[in-house]
Amino acid sequence: MPQCKPPTSSLQSSRILRLLNERKSFLSITPQRTFFSSSKQSLRYHPLPQRPQSREFLGFLDKIPHNLVLYGIIGLNVAVFGMWLLTRQKYKLEGDPGPLIWMHQNFLSSWGNMKAGRVWTVITSCFSHQDWGHILFNGVTFFFMAPAVLDLLKSRRFIFLYLGAGLASCTISLLYGHYIDRRDRPSQGASGAIYGVVTFLACVAPTLTFQLYGIIPVPAWLLVSGAFSYDLYSTWVDKRGTTDTVGHIGGMFSGVLYYILLRRAGTRFFY
């Protein structure tokens, strides 16, 4: 019987494969690399830059220990108060008003200072007290209330709360004095900043008991509501004396607003 010959194409294909296998050992034939088959190290291209992870604004402030924030703010208030005492004493003993005028120009929030371009006074006044009763009452309140808020907010947000409440206190006081009172009433924002801290704590824990004057137990919501009502009444009937009740109201509003903003951002507080 005649033998069947394989197709010519099959013979040629098998011959080509055999020749390639024989030559591969000394030719070191390697398949050509493509974009899809090459390893990342062998490809000559620059990878797309990775998007940096989102960082919180001034996040490094959270690295500051809580005690340093607490005693730092108290220390600044004490230092500025000492400067007020020294400049007054210098004026009494030597009759030199220069240093005292400088304190008024740099540590009081007033419309005159703003018109003169001393815009930093809305911040520096947040650490300013002029008399013993003022600094003692504010200092004791801050010393006992601030640690709880620091634990809740951490250092960065606490600094924002303190400075934000002080800034709002000064701004509202300036606008009220200029457009409603029609007079320039220099003031300090330290009380407004501390009122903001206390009000924030009252929003987080309204049933928390405060010791009024260290003796009378009062729930936080009642104390803040009472202070707000008193300042609002004093402002309405214009019986404020030397107390900036408008600034107090601005500080309390700031504490409430900051609490609402954090809650809307999804922050949960456990106290």
Quick summary of this structure?
The protein is mainly alpha-helical.
Jot down its keywords:
single chain; 271 residues; mainly alpha; two-stranded antiparallel sheet; 9 helices
Beta fraction: under 5%
Q: How many H/I helices?
A: 9
Helix-strand makeup class: mainly alpha
Largest sheet: 2 strands, antiparallel
Rg on CA atoms, Å: 36 Å
End-to-end Cα distance:
101 Å
Strand order within the widest sheet? 1-2
Low-confidence stretches: 1-11, 23-48, 50-54
Order of helices and strands: HHHHHHHEEHH
Give the overall silhouette. globular
- Total number of beta strands: 2
Helix share bin? 55-70%
Task: Explain this structure.
The protein has 9 helices and 2 strands. The radius of gyration is 36 Å and the shape is globular. The model is unreliable at 1-11, 23-48 and 50-54 (pLDDT under 50). It has a two-stranded antiparallel ribbon. Helices cover 63% and strands 3% of the residues. It has 271 residues and is mostly helical. It is a multi-pass membrane protein. Belongs to the peptidase S54 family. The chain crosses the membrane at residues 68-86, 135-153, 159-180, 192-216, 245-262. Residues 117-264 form the Peptidase S54 rhomboid domain. Keywords: Hydrolase, Membrane, Transmembrane, Transmembrane helix.
